[in-house]
Design brief:
about 20% strand; alpha/beta; seven-stranded parallel β-sheet; Rossmann fold; globular; about 325 residues; UDP-galactose 4-epimerase, domain 1
Length: about 325
């Protein structure tokens, strides 16, 4: 890992899924981390192993005054705070634009106005590309978002890039592909399948199982983000973080069932189908290798095993900030898997 000893860094959404791992890794290399999170889905317990050199502040990225105070005397910002769960955006597009787009603009604007922040990392999403038109998908792949969530993230990307140019302010855009692993905050596909496998003996009920995704273990995703803090030639760049391995959802089910020693069938449920779904994502991580010196270290099979082991030891629950499509997922897992 890079030498960031003593760095003063703000991680927005730092108690969330990716954010808590970024916070942990920064803590382990002796950075001084301030987590700025509204805890709509992030969990303070995910930060329990980061006791020293850690400040936790509850707040909203859309609150300019609060943001300005948080950035006082800070040197770097890793901006992860977002509304991340795509089905929620079908019912609450305004909130998604407010948080994901306006919140990002406010964070960067206040960083530019600060007297100390010297680098801003904006964490985007592979969803901005839409379904693959050519594979693997590099940073020059056309952007054609398939959800309001993805549009709100792309709008933020464009704003970050133009503000970087307008103010000559050091900013980097990181586009992770599908991350998975411990510290779960949303019913993404990997924890969803694992939860069903733990509760049912025969059927896994899903929507679109013919779509494919590129899965990256959370420690690898966080490491790529942190590496971008140290590379001067990353400034002004958009960089993909992904494994480069494409897996269909149906194949993922059988892979995970095999790891758990289970024989299952897949039942299709049309109520789970997303309108205008992304059918295919696969990352070209050449740029991350060249600029960041990054490559994934955790193979999918190992990462799935580690995720299952974590879920077997920890309570898994999904908070529900909105009502709507997501009420389908309105459950709590209060027992071990």
């Amino acid at each position: 890992m890079p030498d960031l000893d003593g760095l003063r860094a703000v991680v927005t959404g730092g108690a969330g899924f990716i954010g808590s791992e970024v916070t942990r890794q920064l803590h382990d290399i002796n950075a001084n981390v301030t987590v700025f999170d509204n805890f709509s889905s992030g969990k303070a317990e995910y930060l329990r192993n980061c006791r020293d050199r850690l400040t936790i502040l509850k707040g909203d990225v859309c609150d300019k005054e609060a943001v300005s105070k948080v950035l006082k005397d800070q040197e770097a910002v890793i901006h992860l705070a977002a509304l991340p769960f795509i089905p929620d955006c079908y019912y609450h597009p305004e909130e998604f634009f407010k948080v994901n787009t306006e919140g990002s603009v406010i964070m960067l604007q206040e960083s530019i106005r600060s007297e100390t922040v010297k680098k801003f990392l904006h964490i985007s999403s592979s969803e901005v590309y839409g379904t693959a038109r050519q594979v693997p998908m590099n940073e020059e792949h056309p952007t054609f978002p398939h959800s309001t969530y993805a549009v709100s993230k792309l709008a933020a990307d464009r704003a970050v890039f133009t503000m970087h140019k307008e103010h000559n302010f050091p900013a980097v855009i990181i586009r992770p592909f599908n991350s998975y692993g411990p510290n779960i905050t949303q019913p993404y596909i990997v924890p969803e399948i694992l939860l069903q496998l733990s509760m049912q003996n025969e059927n896994v009920i899903l929507g679109n199982v013919e779509s494919s995704r590129d899965f990256t273990y959370i420690t690898d995703t966080a490491r790529g983000i942190i590496l971008a803090l140290t590379q001067k030639n990353a400034i002004g760049e958009t960089i993909n973080i992904g494994s480069g391995r494409e897996v269909k959802i149906k194949d993922l089910v059988f892979l995970m069932a095999g790891l758990l020693g289970k024989h299952v069938t897949i039942e299709n449920d049309n109520t789970r189908l997303r309108p205008y779904d992304v059918e295919r994502l696969i990352c070209d991580n050449t740029k991350a290798q060249k600029i960041l010196g990054w490559q994934p270290k955790i193979p999918l099979e190992e990462g799935l095993k580690l995720t299952y082991e974590w879920m077997n030891k920890n309570e898994v629950s999904f908070r529900v900030p909105f009502k709507g499509w997501r009420t389908y997922y309105n459950y709590r897992r209060t027992n071990s898997v």
